[in-house]
Design brief:
The radius of gyration is 45 Å and the shape is rod-shaped. The strands form three sheets. The protein has a four-stranded antiparallel β-sheet with strand order 1-9-8-2. The protein has two domains: 77 residues; 149 residues, no CATH class. It is 46% helix and 23% strand. It has four helices and nine strands, in the order αβαββαββαββββ. The chain is of the alpha+beta class and 232 residues long. The model has no long low-confidence stretch (mean pLDDT 83).
């Protein structure tokens, strides 16, 4: 009887121990999970910070690279070339109609600031292109076979003739192509005109100055002025 009760006691003790262990497991399980979660969150935060630091470092490196390139460009780039005037010529626009003045404004705007490199040949017609209504050109008087007719771009010949007279003052310019109108014009001396007609006749000169040059065209509807500068 005593032995039987002793065996039951062992069983009770084992069950009690199992219950205690189970209770301890459930009690500390949540704390372990919380701790693990906190560790995981901290690790994720550290990873994020490292990633952010890496991105910032990368951006700084790129920024430094860009800054270095800009600094090199600013350091190594030469100053813009100076402009030295070598020729100029002006003609009066007396008696010009509004259409003619409009055409002259358009062409001056097209040509103003054009650069002719050393040893290159300037072509008036190639530089201006055809005179079209889409560009705003109007019909004005032109000379055709010695007769006055109305055509788009009337007035361009005064610009080419004014340029021709400026070119004549520079010994290192070589006139490659030039045509007279076949009759006198009022805006330049006799025999000093340069007629142009796109696709037909042109005014061309070659730059042999040893420098690049730039052409400036301007008009105030009273005077047409052309300046030629060399870039030094």
């Amino acid at each position: 009887m005593y032995k039987k009760n002793k065996n039951h006691l062992y069983i009770y003790i084992i069950v009690f121990i199992v219950i205690i262990v189970a209770l301890l497991f459930f009690i500390f399980k949540d704390k372990l999970l919380i701790k693990n979660d906190n560790s995981s969150n901290e690790m994720n935060n550290n990873v994020a910070r490292l990633a952010q630091d890496s991105n910032v470092l990368g951006n700084n490196e790129k920024l430094n690279e860009v800054n270095n390139k800009v600094e090199n460009i600013l350091t190594n780039s030469s100053q813009p070339p100076k402009e030295e005037e070598i020729a100029s010529y002006s003609t009066k626009l007396s008696g010009s109609t509004e259409n003619r003045l409009t055409n002259i404004r358009i062409t001056c705007k097209k040509l103003n600031g054009i650069t002719v490199n050393n040893n290159d040949t300037f072509s008036f017609c190639k530089s201006t292109g055809p005179s079209t209504a889409e560009e705003g050109y109007k019909e004005a008087t032109v000379f055709l076979n010695g007769k006055k007719v109305q055509a788009l771009g009337g007035g361009n010949c005064q610009i080419s003739s004014t340029l021709y007279n400026a070119v004549l003052t520079v010994p290192d310019f070589k006139v490659v192509e030039r045509h007279e109108h076949g009759r006198d014009v009022s805006y330049v001396p006799d025999g000093k005109d340069a007629a142009v007609s796109y696709g037909s006749i042109d005014f061309k000169f070659k730059n042999n100055t040893g420098n690049n040059i730039k052409l400036y065209f301007s008009t105030d509807d009273v005077t047409l002025s052309i300046r030629i500068v060399k870039l030094v």
